[in-house]
Amino acid sequence: MAAGPPAWGVQYTLSLPSEDSALAAAAELSGMGHRLTAVRVHGHFRFVPSSFWYGRPSMDPELEGWWQVFSLAVHSGYERGALEPFLRGERMRVAQVARDHGGFQQGCGEGHAATLEGVFTRDGLVHDRPGAQVALPSPLPDDPARPPAGPPWNAGGAGEPAEVVQAVVAVAERLYGSAEDAPDALGWLLDEEFAFGEPYGTADEFLGDLADAVAHQGTCTDTTVEAVPFLMELACDDDIAPGSRLTLLHDLVRLGASGPAAAVALADRITALGGVQDESAADHLTRQAIGRGLPRLLSRWDDESDAVRFTLAALAALCGTHDRRVLAWPATLPAPAQSSRADAVSLLAALLSGDRKGLTPALDRLASWLPGVAEKAAGPNVDREDLGLAVLPDLVREEVWSEHSMENSPRKYI
Predict the structure, then answer these.
(1) Among 341, 327, 322, 344, CA closest to 392
(2) Which residues fall in a compositionally biased region of kind Pro residues (predicted)?
(3) In terms of CB atoms within 10 Å, which end of the chain has fewer, N or C?
(4) CA Rg, the chain, in Å?
């Protein structure tokens, strides 16, 4: 008989305002079936003489005096993929435990249970339940069914990688002339070593490297702000293949949504600390830079495909741009009732028009079939408008690059 899949583990980290609240949350997690649960003062190893961190300043001074709970949950009998809908519910459940005790869920990590148990730090261990596992329902929950798609749209192919690289380099040469004069994130495009490097297998590989150079792992910085005019110039360049141009526009949506996405991710933390989280300067300036270049992109509106218009409308919503053509467009888009297209258009229309009352039902419909939206929406401290803006990159991805929508997708997200 073949051996089953190895047990899967998830380690959760919670931040709580006091030792008592941390101990209470730890007891609750242990009661849910978590195998190991430890409670330590925030920055515990700063006070341990043998630790590398001993005596060093706190990496998160806002949490000075807070406590942390580290808890390991183990699940067995299934491959990781089959567990995802259940684990999503568990993440929401543990986040609620943190909120109930005045704190927030700071993160979680996953891996083979044996590995996580072996490296689990026992300092402050308060609950040790050898062999404990979180009870799994039978059958496991499935992801919700996606509604029928709207009419297919196609923005064209991504183009040959060498041609896309050549077009991008030509724009860089036109704007900057040399690597020395280019922003830090773009100098490599004009570097001699790049010119003689290995060719890219696909245009998307190259565009992925470009996106990572501009905003490493999606994080906006000062270099991102400097690079936005270049991305806008690329999106207007007729030598960029239509599918690659659409990819660039989606990258701009992702960058423009970085501020709202951070607000959603940090909503519980902000509430627990009793403050208001200001948008980072880099996120704010990135969105401002996109907004300054948006009128030029919108000037081509009448000649654009619906896929590009959908992406431009998302950018307009993120930047608060009230272009009359964009505002009127969602009502003209073929979007059959009870379709994913109709749900996407409802959210976009509510954001573009500033209809806060329309946001909640639109988000509820999306959450009924998009698990990522459902998980973000589960937090009671999340602002609905921030949430609507934060999910726009995923929404563009789902609609424009869905297997139901484009045959030759430059990025296979689904």
Answers:
(1) 344
(2) 138-151
(3) N
(4) 24
Instruction: Mention every residue, 6+ apart, whose C-beta is less than 8 A from residue 410.
Output: 157, 158, 203, 204, 207, 243, 244, 246, 247, 401
With a cut of 70, list the residues of the chain below it in pLDDT.
1-2, 402-414
Tokens coding 239:
């030598």
- Of the candidates 158, 150, 157, 203, which has an alpha carbon nearest to the alpha carbon of residue 405? 150
Cα separation, 240 vs 163, whole angstroms:
8
Q: Nearest Cα to 397, choosing from 242, 218, 212, 250? A: 250
CATH number of this structure's domain 8-128? 3.30.70.3450
Cα-flanking dihedrals φ and ψ of residue 275, to 5°?
Answer: -130, -175
pTM over 0.85: yes
**Per-residue pLDDT, 180:** 86
pLDDT value for 276 = 73
Tens of pLDDT, residues 297-330: 999 999 888 899 999 999 999 999 888 999 998 8
What are the domain boundaries of the chain? Answer: 8-128, 161-400
pLDDT at 398: 82
User: Quick one: CA torsion of 30, 33, 34, 40, rounded to 10 degrees?
Assistant: 0
